[in-house]
């Protein structure tokens, strides 16, 4: 019963013995990751994971551990995000697992107050993962299945490369998205070689009108045109922390 001044509430509880047992993860592969490094890595990839359950494996983020490096990769069938970074110390055995993106999103919120390295333990059967923080332990079931071979999806060469400011491109993409709502959210990018080089962000809808924004860019190669879903473009530009970003076509 909760009582305060003229208010009173009675809450019916459940026997504590009926609460599911808290799982423990012992043995297996253990790795330590800087809290700041892990938080950054999660932010840079988790947005690309699928939200629909039609392909469960894509609702997860693939984790790869090898020597003193770790890799996070997420994809939803339309886009792919990959980030590599350093472990606090090398591990003895290379391994991999698929962690639910929802788990990593929740973990990312908990990392705000974490200063010490995060200890990650993968169970010997690769069925569970444990993230040990200062005052919290997060245990998650892992997703079983074969994650796509993302390495073969990453282009190894380009004919045109444009380097531009992230804030300018994000601002242009947000404006173009308003005009692209009635045209399947499609915005077009037009790279023009220089000097000076430039990038145009264009969107058009019959019932709304059209929009064009141009910005300076350092361009290598010739002219190029490509179209993106506006949301996908804004998602990736929104997590990039550097001042500049490179577009390679």
UniProtKB/TrEMBL annotation:
<dbReference type="InterPro" id="IPR022635">
    <property type="entry name" value="DNA_polIII_beta_C"/>
</dbReference>
<dbReference type="GO" id="GO:0005737">
    <property type="term" value="C:cytoplasm"/>
</dbReference>
<keyword id="KW-0239">DNA-directed DNA polymerase</keyword>
<keyword id="KW-0238">DNA-binding</keyword>
<comment type="similarity">
    <text>Belongs to the beta sliding clamp family.</text>
</comment>
<dbReference type="Pfam" id="PF02768">
    <property type="entry name" value="DNA_pol3_beta_3"/>
</dbReference>
<feature type="domain" description="DNA polymerase III beta sliding clamp central">
    <location>
        <begin position="33"/>
        <end position="149"/>
    </location>
</feature>
<dbReference type="GO" id="GO:0003887">
    <property type="term" value="F:DNA-directed DNA polymerase activity"/>
</dbReference>
<dbReference type="GO" id="GO:0008408">
    <property type="term" value="F:3'-5' exonuclease activity"/>
</dbReference>
<keyword id="KW-0963">Cytoplasm</keyword>
<keyword id="KW-0235">DNA replication</keyword>
<dbReference type="GO" id="GO:0003677">
    <property type="term" value="F:DNA binding"/>
</dbReference>
<dbReference type="GO" id="GO:0006271">
    <property type="term" value="P:DNA strand elongation involved in DNA replication"/>
</dbReference>
<keyword id="KW-0548">Nucleotidyltransferase</keyword>
<dbReference type="InterPro" id="IPR022637">
    <property type="entry name" value="DNA_polIII_beta_cen"/>
</dbReference>
<protein>
    <recommendedName>
        <fullName>DNA polymerase III beta sliding clamp central domain-containing protein</fullName>
    </recommendedName>
</protein>
<feature type="domain" description="DNA polymerase III beta sliding clamp C-terminal">
    <location>
        <begin position="152"/>
        <end position="248"/>
    </location>
</feature>
<dbReference type="GO" id="GO:0009360">
    <property type="term" value="C:DNA polymerase III complex"/>
</dbReference>
<dbReference type="InterPro" id="IPR046938">
    <property type="entry name" value="DNA_clamp_sf"/>
</dbReference>
<dbReference type="InterPro" id="IPR001001">
    <property type="entry name" value="DNA_polIII_beta"/>
</dbReference>
<dbReference type="Pfam" id="PF02767">
    <property type="entry name" value="DNA_pol3_beta_2"/>
</dbReference>
<keyword id="KW-0808">Transferase</keyword>
């Amino acid at each position: 019963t909760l009582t305060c001044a003229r208010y009173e509430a009675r809450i019916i509880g459940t026997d504590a013995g009926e609460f599911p047992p808290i799982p423990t993860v012992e043995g297996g592969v253990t790795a330590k990751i800087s809290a700041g490094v892990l938080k950054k890595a999660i932010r840079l990839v988790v947005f690309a994971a699928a939200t629909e359950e039609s392909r469960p494996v894509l609702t997860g983020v693939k984790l790869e551990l090898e020597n003193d490096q770790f890799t996070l990769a997420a994809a939803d069938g339309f886009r792919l995000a990959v980030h590599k970074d350093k472990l606090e110390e090398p591990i003895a055995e290379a391994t991999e697992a698929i962690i639910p993106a929802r788990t990593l999103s929740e973990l990312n919120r908990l990392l705000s107050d974490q200063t010490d390295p995060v200890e990650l333990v993968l169970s010997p059967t690769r069925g569970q993962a444990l993230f040990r923080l200062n005052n919290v332990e997060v245990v998650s079931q892992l997703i079983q299945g074969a994650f796509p071979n993302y390495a073969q999806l990453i282009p190894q060469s380009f004919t045109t490369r444009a380097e531009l400011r992230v804030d300018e491109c994000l601002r242009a993409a947000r404006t173009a998205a308003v005009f692209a709502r009635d045209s399947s959210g499609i915005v077009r990018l037009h790279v023009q070689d220089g000097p000076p080089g430039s990038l145009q962000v264009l969107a058009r809808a019959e019932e709304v009108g059209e929009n064009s924004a141009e910005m300076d860019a350092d361009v290598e190669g010739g002219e190029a045109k490509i179209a993106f879903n506006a949301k996908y473009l804004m998602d990736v530009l929104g997590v990039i922390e550097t001042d500049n970003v490179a577009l390679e076509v």
